[in-house]
User: Which sequence fits this backbone?
């Protein structure tokens, strides 16, 4: 008689941990986003930069906040700064490029107001950044682990 496969007891715990981590990421992102949007609005409304350049300047300012808080609070990473910083920079650079592309297409191509365009860009980039940082920037270094299951000897 074959036994039914039982659900992995840690799957629910892993999903709950992922949800908590994403909520922490969202909280940190709100702080970084406040800086990002403040720079964006100030630069556009004072006439110092067009919306695309202002969005990119805001993105960079927010990235500084994001790195420090995410490293400490969201991912609790032990990865050395020398390694994590360049990884963070690469993931952020891709997010920067996505921000530029989305802002340029929506404001210059479709004539959308800059604040609405930035909201859409933020929605896309937040998921890219979370996954990139979780899976690569701040991930734990691989450690060989023995499997929970030992193959049967026949």
Assistant:
């Amino acid at each position: 008689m074959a036994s039914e496969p039982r659900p992995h007891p840690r799957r629910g715990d892993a999903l709950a941990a992922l949800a908590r981590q994403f909520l922490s990421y969202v909280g940190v992102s709100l702080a970084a986003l406040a800086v990002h949007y403040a720079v964006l609005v100030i630069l556009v409304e004072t006439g110092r930069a067009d919306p695309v350049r202002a969005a990119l300047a805001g993105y960079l300012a927010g990235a500084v906040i994001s790195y420090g808080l995410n490293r400490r609070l969201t991912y609790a990473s032990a990865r050395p700064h020398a390694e994590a910083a360049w990884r963070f920079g690469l993931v952020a650079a891709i997010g920067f490029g996505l921000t530029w592309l989305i802002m340029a297409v929506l404001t210059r191509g479709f004539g959308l107001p800059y604040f609405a365009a930035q909201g859409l860009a933020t929605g896309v980039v937040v998921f890219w950044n979370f996954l990139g940082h979780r899976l690569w920037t701040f991930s734990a270094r691989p450690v060989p682990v023995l499997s929970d299951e030992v193959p049967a000897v026949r």
User: Anything to note?
Assistant: The helical segments are 11-45, 51-74, 81-109, 114-137.
